[in-house]
Amino acid sequence: MGIKVTKVSGDIVDFDEEKLARSLRFARVPDDIAKEAIAYAESKLTEKVSTHLIYAYVNGFLRRRGHISYSYNYDLKRAIIRLGPTGYPFENFIAKVLSAKGYQTQVGVTLKGKCVTHEIDIEASNKEEHYFIECKFHNQLGIKTDVQVALYTQARFEDIKGSPDLAAHTESHKPWLMTNTAVTKDVIDYANCTGMRVVSWGYPADGSLSDFIISTRLHPVTVLQDLRPNQLNSLFERGVVSVDELKTFLTQGQLPQNFSQAEADQLLSEIKNFV
Q1: Is the dihedral of CA 29, 31, 34, 36 positive or negative?
Q2: Distance, CA of 10 to CA of 3 (rounded, Å)
């Protein structure tokens, strides 16, 4: 009997080595290291195993071998979920990623539309385009963002683009849906039909959310798994949501009361060769 894997959804499927290899390629782990990680994980598998346990074996292997940057990439999806339970740290993190990609960004912007007033998660612009971004955050694995969110995003945009506040903008105005999960086929079809930009965890194939983050090396602070919940909250309150911001924060000695100097030194030791 082959190895059976229990997914987050509760579904039970056969273990698929190629699927595990794809997830490592997705995290940009070099082939030789990926093969070693897969071999290690397979040596630990029993007849029944969960996707979470497979993840733990692989990520643990990467960390023990000193492949911290690849570990951060492999852990990225779960790390973003740990930015929750609210969506505010996620919005702040995405704004910082977009800034690193060359956009001018503002978080939590209030605009009067043609009919009603809206609070925009992120307003982002460059020389050509002016985006109104809806950030849909899910704090659980296995969830997909459905077409209702896309419909809502488009409807808000239709009202916003009639705002008198946009008179000073010469860029092309566009709606943008960003989410930390997968999206349904209906979302993609609707976006293609209306011209809405969609960036989700794995979509589009070239330019997905994971691509955005990995290309900027602005990993969320939650990839540092030793941080306690109260420490994370204290960082979020100070607007610190990325690893590079935490490095600056700690290097400058700006320690919240719930961080000891020993903890700060340990964190700096882990991240100094990454950012």
Answers
A1: negative
A2: 15
Planar angle of CA 202, 89, 97, nearest 5 degrees: 55
Amino acid at 193: C
Cβ–Cβ < 8 Å for 42, 56: no
Please name the fold of domain 88-216.
Trna Endonuclease; Chain: A, domain 1 (3.40.1350)
In this prediction the pTM is 0.90
- β-pair partners for 204: none
**Exposure of 158 by Cβ count < 10 A (0-12 exposed, 13-18 middle, 19+ buried)?**
middle
Query: Per-residue pLDDT tens for 196-227?
Result: 999 999 899 989 999 999 999 899 999 998 89
- Which pLDDT score, from 0 to 100, does residue 213 have? 94
Cα–Cα distance measured from residue 109 to residue 127, given in angstroms and rounded to the nearest whole number? 19
